[in-house]
Design goal:
This protein is of the alpha+beta class and 234 residues long. Helix 1 packs antiparallel against helix 4, helix 2 runs antiparallel to helix 3 and helix 5 packs across helix 10.
Amino acid sequence: MPSRFQIKTYTDNSFYHLFNRGVEKRPIFLDEKDYAVLLSYLKTYLSPKDEPFLRTQATNSSVSWRERDQALRLLRMNNFHGTIKLLSYCLMPNHFHMAVWQQHGTGIDEFMNSLWTRYTMYFNKKYRRVGTLFQSVYKAVTVISEEQLIHLTRYIHQNPIAHRKLHTLASKGEALRSYIWTSYPEYLGLRRTSWVDSTIVLSRWTINKEYEYEKFVLETDAMDSAKLIAPLMI
């Protein structure tokens, strides 16, 4: 029987929690380059596509054939700038989480299929394997309130320490800050990434937004937060 999150109903202008894990819980990222490649794909899909420049580049005989070929490939590639907003993400060795907004009802499906099909092809070629990378079709569930969305980003950003026995706020904060395969640095103002939109969540606070968000992530009662986002989990 299909998971309740595999049968998806999408609506326009809505927020979603997207997640999946490797087949048999195996790793989907084996080294730092794998993480970096996935992030490069996200950048390509979510950044504006300068089509006039790419068309000029593709037909410019004064540039190398590699540059022309690259321009042609970028022109053909799907682009989701304006139709998908990535609010937060966390890439873990054998799974991932994303919080996204979509403009129209088919945006997420097109985005996820394109992103992860491309990554699976890269992964299989690199590691000389065949077959599916994930245990099933990605999961998606609608976020129904602003409060739920804010707590969802907290859950996503806490993934790197979810199963680690860290007993102090200082140790938790240091562990989260040091994990780079997540959008947490964007929320703390430690890193600027144009294709990650932290403004929607950070607008909850009016002053010292980055400080208040970190305080929220580290000090919010875990049980209360878990109850609020329980409908978004498996």
